[in-house]
Design a protein that fits this description.
alpha/beta; five-stranded parallel sheet
Amino acid sequence: MQLAELKIAIIGLGYVGLPLAVEFGKKTPVVGFDIHQRRIDELRSGQDLTLEVSPEELSQATQLTYTANLEDLKSCNFFIVTVPTPIDDYKQPDLTPLIKASTSIGKVLKKGDIVVYESTVYPGATEETCIPVLEQVSGLKFNKDFFAGYSPERINPGDKLHRVTNILKITSGSTPEVAEFIDQVYNLVIEAGTHKAESIKVAEAAKVIENTQRDVNIALINELAVIFNKMGIDTESVLKAAGTKWNFLPFRPGLVGGHCIGVDPYYLTHKAQSIGYHPEIILAGRRLNDSMGAYVVTQLVKKMIKQKIQVEGAKVLLLGLSFKENCPDIRNTKVVDIIKELQEYNIEVDVYDPWISAEEAQLEYGITPVTVVNKACYDAMILAVAHNQFKEMGETGIRALGKEIHVLYDLKYVLDQSESDLRL
């Protein structure tokens, strides 16, 4: 295959697939495929509800078309898979979307085609799980009739500085020749350049440890926050002081959710356990980070009791539901852990987030966010996500929502130390 013959199909048009499809659609023919017709209709109308791509950017991708019809992929020869790879209720990898995507591609796969996976997986998943599906459905032989690669996504939802084109991209292929071609394809749009890994497994491993490393580091800071709180020391003040050393890493405590950091480590630990190794540090970090929602509520309840606020039947406002600031993404948000824990105390919880889709919140978590917050209404307010709107409210605006006696808990260091009643 030559670059001039390239016709790309991108499977999955979410936070990862759409920005990539748009960039490639400026350079070469691209078919963007998604199983949700509603998503296709939305994009055809020139809108992206994830807010990752603006209407102007969508209009610039003149060679990009959208479809939910698998038949429209038959003319494509380079498939990029960008479907989610979540975990199940038992914190085990759920490869169902990946297997379904591979099954779909297998139905239209032809001799000479290349399939590249971008979804986060454990080392070996592409060749051990995905390739056999492609072979079985298509009837073709791997590395003889068709080829594969892995190029992990590095999309950061809501980040308008680090975009798909200016983030260095890891690439890999199932043969040296295919690896080189895949690298050339990505270099059509990746201005920051690429790093060609030695193998698919190396590329898979590199991706999964990126977020595992962050998870473990945040777990350390969360544990330090718990210790310092017990000692009556402000954690943010400690971190600012320690940060004056040139090589101190600037992590902050908090809830660790989202589609990457709170999920990817479980892919690595699953694989490690399957080969007979029990990972100690990674799982300890996961346990600690997963416990932070309960810790936050414990701290809040203690403070309410000290201020003689009746806990049972109290009314608490959560400011923010998305997993990070200035972003509508609610996938794996750990704010729901706080909500569930508060409800264990029979506390009435209101959730306000101007960024998210109320329909999605209801569908995903059974939560109906409020659209208006009334003043002098709440026994406690938890500033859970650092949206710009909440920063603009400031201490005065947020405290105005509370009753005469209330607790203001700032999880995100949006306010100064003196302006809140509690901080992590």
